[in-house]
């Protein structure tokens, strides 16, 4: 369990580099966190499925819209899969997710 805590702390540090991905709680309290994305649930599911198909990584299961427009929330558990994934692979996948949910500049 201690390894999960260390990995969760590391994940929070990495998430600071991705302003479009907002963790809640702001500081880790366990190996579970909620991640808020600036898209609605249907768009998040589309993005999740595309990343899964193209990269072979299943990012999350259930997605729920929040009370705010164009925002959804997922729950992430830091467990064996995230513990064993190399750091650079986690960062690469977070980049893909962040790029996909970030507003396009014209």
Q: Summarize this, please?
A:
This protein is of the alpha+beta class and 106 residues long.
Description of the molecule:
The protein has 106 residues and is α+β, with helices and mostly antiparallel strands. The chain has a single domain (2-101), classed as Aspartate Aminotransferase, domain 1 (Alpha-Beta Complex), CATH 3.90.1150. Helix content is 46%, strand content 16%. The chain contains four helices and four strands; from the N terminus they run H-E-E-H-E-E-H-H. The protein has helices spanning 2-15, 41-55, 80-84, 87-101; strands at residues 22-24, 32-37, 64-65, 72-77. A four-stranded antiparallel beta sheet has the order 1-2-4-3, covered by helices on one side. Strand 3 (64-65) and strand 4 (72-77) form a beta hairpin. The longest helix has 15 residues, at 41-55. The radius of gyration is 13 Å and the shape is globular. The protein starts with a helix and ends in a 5-residue tail after the last helix. The model has no long low-confidence stretch (mean pLDDT 94).
Features:
106 residues, alpha+beta, Aspartate Aminotransferase, domain 1, four-stranded antiparallel beta sheet, 4 helices, 4 strands, 46% helix
Blueprint of the fold:
Blueprint (H helix, E strand, L loop, with lengths): L1 H14 L6 E3 L7 E6 L3 H15 L8 E2 L6 E6 L2 H5 L2 H15 L5
Antiparallel strand pairs: 1-2, 2-4, 3-4
Helix pairs in contact: 2-4
């Amino acid at each position: 369990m201690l390894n999960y805590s260390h990995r969760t702390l590391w994940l929070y540090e990495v998430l600071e580099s991705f302003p479009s991905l907002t963790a809640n709680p702001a500081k880790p309290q366990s190996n579970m966190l909620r991640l808020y994305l600036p898209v609605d649930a249907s768009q998040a599911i589309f993005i999740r499925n595309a990343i899964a198909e193209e990269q072979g990584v299943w990012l999350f299961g259930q997605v729920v819209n929040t009370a705010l427009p164009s925002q959804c929330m997922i729950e992430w558990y830091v467990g064996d899969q995230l513990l064993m994934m190399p750091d650079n692979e986690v960062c690469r996948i977070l980049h893909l997710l962040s790029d996909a949910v970030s507003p396009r500049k014209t």
